[in-house]
Structures are given as structure tokens and as C-alpha cells.
Amino acid sequence: MMPEPKAFRQPLTKSNFTSTKGTKATLQGATTSDYFPITVHHCYDGDACTVTLNDPFLPPVLGDHIPVRLAGVDTPELKGDCAAERALAIQARDFLVAWLATAVRVDLPSPARDTYFSLNGRLLADGQDLSQGLITANLARPYDSGKKLPFC
User: Fold this and answer.
1) Could you tell me whether strands 17-18 and 112-113 are parallel, antiparallel, or unpaired per DSSP bridges?
2) Where are the alpha helices (DSSP H) in 17-129?
3) Which pairs count as long-range contacts for 13-20, CB under 8 Å and 24+ apart, including other chains?
4) pLDDT at residue 24 above 60?
5) 12 and 40 in contact (C-beta within 8 Å)?
6) What is the side-by-side order of every strand in the sheet holding 119-121?
């Protein structure tokens, strides 16, 4: 079940993450994936996070602290055109962070590179699609490409 948008529990901080050499890094217990074992470090806004792909065969330059844009959604911008957009952007980010902070498992299935060399993909938290969760909570709009509609 998805948390309410105001269900922000705690921000992602270094104290939330644990790692032991030779094991997968975790966020409050487990952030592992059958596709890519990932660690979520930070979410800038509702549709952009920084992750590390913990693949022992992947050089750090290709998998360490890589930006990921959530596929299929557009969320308000923190540097938006009006106060309402900026406030909604904070709600979307906090919703995403709260969901990730309570997830036992986070997956990044089938990521692809976008035009800015960021990863673009769906993040799944305990099997739930975070992009769809943001849309359902009215914190994001569906987006596949092209012109984005203003939030103001």
C-alpha cells in the first residue's frame, strides 16, 4: 500500500544507510534487486534520484552515484515558475523519499540511458511502481516524451 503524500517519515541521510564490505548496501534493512542491486542515495525531486548499481563487474565510473529519472512521469520542479509548483515539488519528493525509506526491496528493472546519459527507468519499491504511485497520489503526470505541460 502506498503512503499518503504527507506521510514523510525521515529524509534519506547517511545514517539511514548501512553497508558492510563485500555485501550489498542497504536503506533501512534492504535495498536489493534481482535486476540491479542498487543503493538509493538521494532524491532531488519527485522524478530524479541518485543510485549506485552494486554490480561487482561494473566499473564505478559507470555505476556509482548515477542519476536516475523515473520513467513515465513528470513531477513539478523545485525551481518551478510559481509557489504552488514548488510546494507540490517538495510534496512529491517527500512522498518518494518516504516510500523508499520504508521499502524492504528496491528494484530498477530494465533501465535505459536518456539523452543526458542519466538512467531512465522504473523504480519498484516492494514491487510497487513508484511512478504510478506518484500519479495516483496526484503528485505527478504521465509523461512519455515531448512537450511538458506547466504546473502553474
Assistant:
1) unpaired
2) 60-63, 83-102
3) 16/101, 17/41
4) no
5) yes
6) 38-45, 48-53, 66-70, 119-121, 112-113
pLDDT computed for residue 98 by the predictor: 93
Structural contact between residues 88 and 140, judged by C-beta atoms closer than 8 angstroms: no
Residue 39 in 3-state DSSP? Answer: strand
Residue 8's CB is within 10 A of a number of other CB atoms, namely: 18
Q: Output Rg (C-alpha) for the chain, integer angstroms.
A: 15
**pTM of the predicted model, to two decimals?**
0.73
Which residues touch 85 (CB under 8 Å, ≥6 apart)? Answer: 76, 77, 150, 151, 152
Nearest one of 138, 105, 147, 140 to 123, comparing CA atoms: 105
The single residue listed with the C-alpha cell 514523510 is 8
